[in-house]
């Protein structure tokens, strides 16, 4: 109990003794952890969107205007017999026009200009595994009378690629900031160990156990890591509320919304990573610096 | 109590060993001087006994424990049975005499209640009664060394190691410190002292082990500096 009080007191004194360094350490830690949290969130988001959209997407096989009855039947036949296909619907010109009218009902002038002959007829095919698109396309495109095969997935892939790039960038920034943060942690611990060198020497001399000597330093780093993690979480939370739910709400509707549960999940994740990494850095620094 | 068996210690990059095949035994309750010129290797003995350095060859046994094979995590506990005094006192400047001694107890897990009981007692023993709340800079060199002795002795160690404890003190103060170490020795504590203060060695008439260039050249029961 009393030793806990001693260690706690040492931690607070340690953080306060070098307050500018402590602030620098906490800021870099928090930025690094924010980037980490953002990229983890984005990863979970992309995953969620994939499972959401991949269930919905279809391969559209548009038929030529001059397609014959026999060609259509042959295409129909080959889709039905293809093992990759889960389900198939046929969309006639009239169906397409009806859908079109619903989709663009806010622009009646535009709808008027489109006649029943303007839209091609098509087969809408759902694949068992959407990733198998190119295999399926290769098998089907030899058929006569096909105008075009469009995979909705390809459009999504482009979106996901952008996400991926942002995610990688966030991770790179997180990595660089983490490096800076850990150097600062190491440096802070060195300064702390130097300013307490007399105490440490006496403690070693009279036989204080190693963990007792190291605990205040390691805890100092852990406290800084935890504060950095909480700040990082606040950044993420505020960022989500003001940006995604506020200004960029249009974008969030296209994307699937980020569940609050995922955002809250970042708190234990960032706290765990922040505390653990700081503790290990401090401990390694002490191994070199105190030689206990 | 203390046993060195064919101990050789060569520091990295050193051309010759600091201790060269040294064998010596010290019994419980003995008072032993290690003397010799600077660089003869006498301070290395203290470091070996504290497990601050490991011997290159040979065996070091302290308190029936083979220090050579002691696991590093056991070293702190091992050191609690050894008190230590140095030439430069090594007191914490921002703590009073009382706090300096109590610190040594608290960091090995003793409660404040224990400290309140034993610290005044040991400060009284070293002759610092009434000066408990002075800071080191408010004390004379001799008084600071008394605080250091009190800190070394407060745990009632089996062995007290003193590395040139009078090196920074004038002759009269030195003799007072020696009287103190003698009293501690009479409680049954083994005292090992490294010194090159001939005056003190000649007055005390205790066992003298002389080291030169890492070898024992003399081991005399009631010796003088020579």
From TrEMBL, chain A:
Q: Where is the ABC3 transporter permease C-terminal domain?
A: 172-287
Q: Which keywords accompany this UniProt record?
A: Cell cycle, Cell division, Cell membrane, Membrane, Transmembrane, Transmembrane helix
Compartment list: Cell membrane
Q: Which GO terms describe its cellular component?
A: plasma membrane
As for membrane topology, the entry says: Multi-pass membrane protein
Q: Say which domain of life the source belongs to.
A: Bacteria
**What GO terms describe the biological role, i.e. biological process, of this protein?**
cell division
Q: Which residues form the FtsX extracellular domain?
A: 57-149
Enumerate the transmembrane spans: 21-44, 165-194, 215-243, 263-286
Is Cell cycle among this UniProt entry's keywords? yes
Subunit comment? Forms a membrane-associated complex with FtsE.
Please state which protein family the record places this protein in: Belongs to the ABC-4 integral membrane protein family. FtsX subfamily.
Q: What does the record give as the function of this protein? A: Part of the ABC transporter FtsEX involved in cellular division.
This protein is called what? Cell division protein FtsX
Annotated source species: Winogradskya consettensis
């Amino acid at each position: 109990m009393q030793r806990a009080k001693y260690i706690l007191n040492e931690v607070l004194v340690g953080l306060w003794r070098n307050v500018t360094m402590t602030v620098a350490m906490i800021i870099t830690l928090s930025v690094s952890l924010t980037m980490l949290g953002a990229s983890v969130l984005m990863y979970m988001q992309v995953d969620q969107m994939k499972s959401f959209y991949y269930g919905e997407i279809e391969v559209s096989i548009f038929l030529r205007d001059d397609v014959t009855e026999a060609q259509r039947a042959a295409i129909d036949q080959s889709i039905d017999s293809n093992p990759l296909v889960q389900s198939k619907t046929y969309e006639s010109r009239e169906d397409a026009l009806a859908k079109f009218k619903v989709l663009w009902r806010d622009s009646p002038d535009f709808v008027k200009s489109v006649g029943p002959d303007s839209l091609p007829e098509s087969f809408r095919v759902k694949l068992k595994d959407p990733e198998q698109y190119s295999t399926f396309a290769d098998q089907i495109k030899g058929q006569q009378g096909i105008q075009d095969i469009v995979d909705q997935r390809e459009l999504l892939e482009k979106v996901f690629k952008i996400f991926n790039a942002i995610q990688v960038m966030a991770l790179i920034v997180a990595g660089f900031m983490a490096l800076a943060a850990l150097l600062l942690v190491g440096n802070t611990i060195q300064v702390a160990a130097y300013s307490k060198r007399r105490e440490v020497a006496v403690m070693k001399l009279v036989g204080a156990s190693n963990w007792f000597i190291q605990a205040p330093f390691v805890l100092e780093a852990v406290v800084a890591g935890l504060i950095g993690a909480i700040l990082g979480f606040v950044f993420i939370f505020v960022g989500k509320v003001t940006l995604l739910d506020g200004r960029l709400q249009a974008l969030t509707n296209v994307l699937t919304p980020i569940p609050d549960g995922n955002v809250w999940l970042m708190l234990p994740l960032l706290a765990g990573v922040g505390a653990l990494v700081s503790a290990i850095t401090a401990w390694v620094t002490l191994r070199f610096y105190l030689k206990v | 109590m203390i046993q060195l068996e064919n101990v050789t210690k060569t520091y990295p990059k050193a051309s010759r060993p600091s201790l060269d095949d040294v064998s010596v035994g010290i019994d419980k309750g003995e008072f032993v001087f290690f003397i010799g010129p600077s660089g003869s290797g006498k301070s290395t003995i203290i470091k070996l006994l504290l497990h601050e350095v490991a011997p290159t060859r040979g065996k070091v046994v302290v308190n029936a424990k083979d220090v050579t094979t002691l696991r590093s995590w056991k070293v702190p506990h091992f050191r609690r049975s050894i008190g230590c005094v140095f030439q430069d006192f090594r007191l914490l400047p921002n703590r009073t005499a009382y706090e300096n001694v109590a610190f040594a107890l608290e960091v090995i897990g003793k409660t404040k209640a224990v400290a309140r009981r034993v610290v005044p007692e040991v400060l009284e023993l070293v002759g610092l009664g009434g000066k408990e709340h002075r800071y080191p800079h408010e004390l004379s060199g001799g008084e600071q060394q008394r605080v250091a002795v009190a800190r070394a002795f407060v745990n009632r160690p089996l062995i007290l190691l003193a590395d040139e404890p009078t090196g920074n003190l004038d002759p009269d103060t030195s003799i007072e410190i020696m009287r103190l170490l003698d009293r501690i020795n009479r409680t049954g504590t083994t005292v090992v002292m490294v010194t090159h203060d001939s005056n003190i060695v000649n007055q005390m008439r205790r066992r003298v082990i002389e080291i030169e260039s890492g070898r024992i050249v003399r081991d005399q029961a009631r010796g003088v500096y020579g």
